[in-house]
Amino acid sequence: MISTERSPFGPSGQNPRSPSENPFLTISVTDPVKLGNSVQSYISYRVITKTNLPEFEDSEKIVIRRYSDFEWLHDRLAEKYKGFFIPPLPEKSTVEKFRFSAEFIETRRQALDMFINRVASHPELRKSEDLKIFLQEDEEKMERIRTLEIGYFKKKPADLIQIFKDVGSKVSDVVLGKEKPMEESTPEYEKLKHYIFELEDHLAEAQKQAFRLVKRHRELGQSLSDFGKAIKLLGSCEGDSLGKVFSELGSKSELLSIKLQKEAHNLLMNFEEPLKDYVRAVQSIKATMADRANAFRQQCELAETVKLKMINIEKLALMHSEKHGEAEMEYKELKAESEEATRRFENIVKLMNEELVRFQEQKTADMGLAFHEFAKGQAKLANDIADAWRNILPKLEACSSSS
Amino acid sequence: MMDPETYLGFESPGPRAEDMETLALSDAPSDYRSAISSFSAAADGGDDPARSLPPPPPYPVSPSPPPSYADVVPSPFRSQDPAADLAAPADYVAIAVSEPQKEQDAGGVYVSYLVASRWRGGEERRVRRRFREVDADRLAEAYRGFLVPPRPDKGVVEGQVMQQHEFLELRRAALERYLRRLAAHPAIGRGDELRAFLEAPGRFTDGAAQPPSHAPPQEAVHPAKGGRDLLRIFKELKQSVANDWGGAKPPVAEEDRDFLERKEKMQDLEQQLTTSSQQAEALVKAQQDVGETMGQLGRVFIKLTKLETEEAIYNSQRTRAADIKRVAVATVKAGRLYRELNAQIVKHLEVLHEYLELMLAVRSAFSDRASALLTVQTLVSDLSSIQARVEKLETASSKVFGGDRWRLHKIEELKETIRATEDAKTFALREYERIKEINRSELERLDRERHDDFLSMLKGFVVNQVGYAEELASVWAKVADETRGYARG
Questions:
Q1: Residue A175 lies in a domain
Q2: What is the pTM (predicted TM-score) of this model?
Q3: What are phi and psi of A62, to 5 degrees?
Q4: How far is CA A220 from CA A170, A343, A379, A382, A387, in A?
Q5: Quick one: residue B108, left, alpha or beta (phi over 0 = left, psi -120 to 50 = alpha)?
Q6: Within the 282-301 window of chain B, which residues sit less than 8 Å (CB to CB) from chain A?
Q7: Is B282 close to A227, i.e. CB distance below 8 A?
Q8: Is B322 on the interface with A (CB under 8 A)?
Q9: Are residues A40 and A134 in the same domain?
Q10: Distance set, CA A283 to CA A87, A193, A201, A345 (Å)
C-alpha cells in the first residue's frame, strides 16, 4: 500500500490524519490469489478501500478484483476524461509461462496498486462514477458490467497504433515542409511532441538497461556461488592454513552470492519498475495527444463545414430557394456543433497543460526516490562485499608469515 | 606487444609476471654447475675453476640423490656475488617475444617471432624463431622425470573467432610465457637446449644450427638407451604405459605407497583445478557483464539529462535533470570500476590456468617414471628367460658325449648376452632410481611453488575486491546522500 505517499490532494497536499476533518480515500491492492481452473486460471486481488468521503457507502470496503476489472476502469476513464493523463496500467501479459511467476505477480500487484491510488488522488478522476463502481460493487455485478461494456468502449489496439502513427508523423511532416492543414502545429506544441517522443525513446532504453542490470546481478551471484564451491574443493587439496583460507574464501563467495540475489530483487522492484512506470506514463500522454489530435481535426472539419454551409445559404438566399429555411436551421445546428468541438479541443489543451505540470512534478519525485533506492542498494551491496572480503585478509596474512 | 628496446625492464602488469621471474629456483647440483661452468667460465669468472671437465652429458648421470633445492629468489636486484648464495641465480633474467612476421618457405607460409633474451652475464641476444622450433619432444626426452612445462599448442584458441592479429598476439604471449617458464625451471633453465634455442644464430631448425661447440653433439650417449636392442624396444613399445593416470595394460607394479598417494593427490588436484579454472572464467565474465551494462545504463542517463536540460519548461524538470546527472555520472564511473577490477582479477586467477597446464607436465613425469620401471622389469624378465634357456641348453648338452659344439657355442653367446643384459639392467635400475628421485623433488618443488603462487593469487584477488568495493561504496553513498530528500518517511 502506498497511500502514505499519495496524499489525496496532489504532491503538495497534506497527509490527512483526522477523519472528521480531512477527507481521505486510501486504497490498497493486496493478496494475489490464483483462481479458476487450469484452462482459464487468473489472478485475483483484494482491493481494500478506506474512506470518510460521503459519496462512498461504507467507510471500509473490501472487494475482489482481477486485471480485466482494472482494465475496464482504465478504459472508461480514458473515454470520459479526455485531456487528462490517465494513470497507466501494467501490460497485459502475453508470455504464458511467465504469467504466474512470483516476480511477475508481485510487480503487477504493485503497479495496480499505484494505478488505483493515482486515480483516487487525482482531483478530477477521483470523482468518477466508474471509480465508485469499481471500489464498491460486488463481484458478480462487476463482472456483468465489465463484460457488457468492455467491447463497446474498448479501443482496439490497431486503432491505437494508427493514432500514434498519425501523431508521430506530424513532426516529420512539418519538418519536411508538408503543411497539412488538419494537423496542429504551433511551435510550442511541436516542441512538446518532440520532447515526449525523445523522452519515451530514452526511457525505454533506460528501462531495458535497468532490466539487464538486474539480470547481470543474478548471473554474478550465480557464478560467485559456483566459484565458491569450486574454490573450497581446490582448497582441500592444499595444506592446513592455506586450505583454510581457500575454504573461507569459498564461504564468503557463497555468502555474497545471496546478497547479490537480494540486491537484484531490490533493483527490480525499486528501480526498474519505476522506470517502466515512467515509460507507461509517457505512453499515456501520447494517448492524450492522440485525443487532442482528433479533437483538433474535428474542430477544423466542422469549421470548414460551417463555412461551406454559410456560402451555400447565401447562394440559396440569392436564388430565393425554398430550401433556404431548412438550410438556415442546419446551419444553426452545425454552428453549435462546431462551437462545441472548439470548446472540446480547447478544453483538452487547457487540461493537458495543467496535467503536464502535475506530471513533471510527480515524475521528479518518483525518479528522485528511485534514484535514491538505487544508490542506497548499490552502496549497501558494495559495503557488504568489502566487509566480506576484508574479513579474510588477516587469515591471509597469518598464512604468509607462517609459510 | 612489447617493444624489444624496452623489454629488459621487468614488466609492470600484476604479480604474475614478477612471480615468473622470481620463482624459487633450485641450487644446482654439483653436476649441473659443472655443466654450466664449462661454457660459462668466460662470462662468469667460473664458479668452480678448479674443475676440469669432460664434455658433460645432457644431464647428470650421477646415481647419488641430487641435493635438495634451496629456495633462492633470483633477481637483478640481488647481489651478483655468487658466493653470497649457495645457488647460482637463474640464468636468464629476461625473455621477450615480439614482432611476429609472416615468412615463406618451401613448406608454405608461416610466422616467425623475434626472441630477445638477456643472460645473467648481461649480454642481450636476439634470434628469430618459429613457434615449432621449440622441440618439445627433445626436451621431454632430455628431462625425463622432471616437470617439463608443456608447450602451448595451436589449439589454444579453440572455438574462438578472432582477428588474425588477435590470434597472433595470443600466440606471441603464449610463446613468451612458455619460454619464461622453461627459463625458470631449475634444470631446464640451465640446460643446453634452451640456451641453444635462445642464442644460436641463424635459423634454428632441427640439426641445421650449430650448437655451441662445447655442448655435446646430437647423438650424445643416452645411457638409458645404451645397450638396448631392437627387440627390447619393440617389447617396451607394446607394453608402454599409456600417458594417463589409469595406468597401462599390464599395469606397472608400483610398490611405493607414498608415490601412489601422491599420484592420487595429483589426480584430485587436476580435477579441482579444472573446475576452478572454469568457474573463475565464468566469474570474470559475469563481472565484466555487470560493468558493461552499468556503462550502458549510465550513457542513457546522460542522454536523458541532456533532454531534460535542453527542453526544460518547468522547474521540476531542471531539478530532475540535476538528479539524473548525478546518477549518470555515478553509474558510468561504477561501470568503469567494475571493468578495472576485472582486469586485475583476471591476472590473479590466471594462476589457476597455469597450474592446470602444469598438470600435463606432472602426468608426463609420472609416465617417465613408469616407463623407466617398465624397462627395468622388462630387462629382469629377459634375464630370467635367457638364464632359463642357458640352463636348458646346458642340460641338453651335458647329455651329449664329448660336448655339443653347436650348443656350447650357443651357450657362450647367451652368456655374453646375459652379461650385456646385466649391464643394461644395472643402467636401467640406476636410471629408474634417478627418475624416482627427480619425481620426488619436483613434486616437492611443485607443492612449495604452488603454495606460494596460490597464496599470492588469493591475496591479489581479495585485496582488489576490497579496494574496488570500497570505492564503489563511496561513489554510491554520495548519490544516496544527495538524493536523501526523496526518501520515504
A1: no
A2: 0.76
A3: -120, 130
A4: 45, 58, 17, 14, 18
A5: left
A6: 282-283, 285-287, 289-290, 293-294, 296-297, 300-301
A7: yes
A8: no
A9: yes
A10: 10, 12, 11, 20
Number of domains in chain A: 2
Specify the residue for cell string 533532454.
B307
Alpha carbon A6 to its chain's center: 15
Please, are residues B311 and A202 in contact by the beta-carbon 8 Å criterion? no
- How far, in Å, CA of B400 to CA of A259, rounded? 94
B317 touches chain A (CB under 8 A): yes
Residue A28: how many other CB atoms lie within 10 Å: 19
Neighbour count for residue A72 (Cβ, 10 Å): 24
Domain that holds residue A251: 207-402
Residue A325 placed within a domain: yes
Please answer whether residues B296 and A209 qualify as being in contact, where contact means their C-beta atoms are separated by less than 8 angstroms. yes
Domain co-membership, A335 together with A217: yes
First vs last C-alpha separation in chain B: 57
Asked, for residue A176, whether it belongs to a domain, the answer is no
Please indicate if any CB of chain A lies within 8 Å of the CB of B463.
Answer: yes
Q: Which of A154, A177, A192 is the last residue of a domain?
A: A154
Interchain contact A212–B (C-beta under 8 A):
yes
Assess contact for B235 and B379: CB atoms under 8 A. Answer: no
A205 contacts chain B (CB < 8 A): yes
CA distances for A356 relative to A8, A114, A337, angstroms: 18, 19, 28
What is the H or E stretch that residue A143 is in? Answer: helix A139-153
**Sheet arrangement for strand B124-130:** B92-105, B108-119, B124-130
Query: Does any domain span residue A195?
Result: no
Backbone angles phi, psi at B110, to 5 degrees: -145, 175
- Domains, chain B, in order of start with CATH, read 88-202 (3.30.1520.10), 257-488 (1.20.1270.60)
Give Cα A241 distance to the centre of its chain. Answer: 56
Which of B477, B483, B488 lies at the smallest CB-CB distance from A5? B488
**Is B245:B363 a contact under the CB 8 Å cutoff?**
yes
Torsion over CA: B166, B167, B170, B172 (sign): negative
**Alpha carbon A21 to its chain's center:** 32
Q: Are A99 and A178 in contact (CB under 8 A)?
A: no
Chain A residues with CB under 8 Å of B263 CB are: none
- Write out the DSSP string of A279-299: HHHHHHHHHHHHHHHHHHHHH
> Is the minimum CB–CB distance between B138 and chain A shorter than 8 Å?
no
Q: pLDDT tens track of chain A, all 403 residues?
A: 444 444 444 444 444 444 456 888 899 999 999 888 877 888 999 999 999 888 888 889 999 999 999 999 999 999 999 999 999 999 987 666 666 788 889 999 999 999 999 999 999 999 999 999 999 999 999 989 888 865 555 555 545 555 555 555 545 554 555 445 578 888 999 999 999 999 999 999 999 999 999 999 999 999 999 999 999 999 998 878 899 999 999 999 999 999 999 999 999 999 999 999 999 999 999 999 999 999 999 999 999 889 888 888 888 888 877 778 788 888 888 999 999 999 999 999 999 999 999 999 999 999 999 999 999 999 999 999 999 999 999 999 888 766 5
Q: Among A122, A154, A186, which residue terminates a domain?
A: A154
Supply angle C-alpha B298, B304, B307, rounded to 5: 150
CA distances from A259 to A224, A251, B150, B278 (A): 11, 13, 41, 23
* Residues A289, A211 share a domain: yes
Q: What is the ipTM of this complex?
A: 0.84
- Co-location of A222 and A351 in the same domain: yes
Task: Output the CA–CA distances (angstroms, integers) from residue A99 to A38, A95, A248, A268, in the order listed.
Answer: 13, 6, 40, 17
Query: Cell numbers at residue B481, please?
Result: 546522500
User: Would you call B466 helix, strand, or coil by DSSP?
Assistant: helix
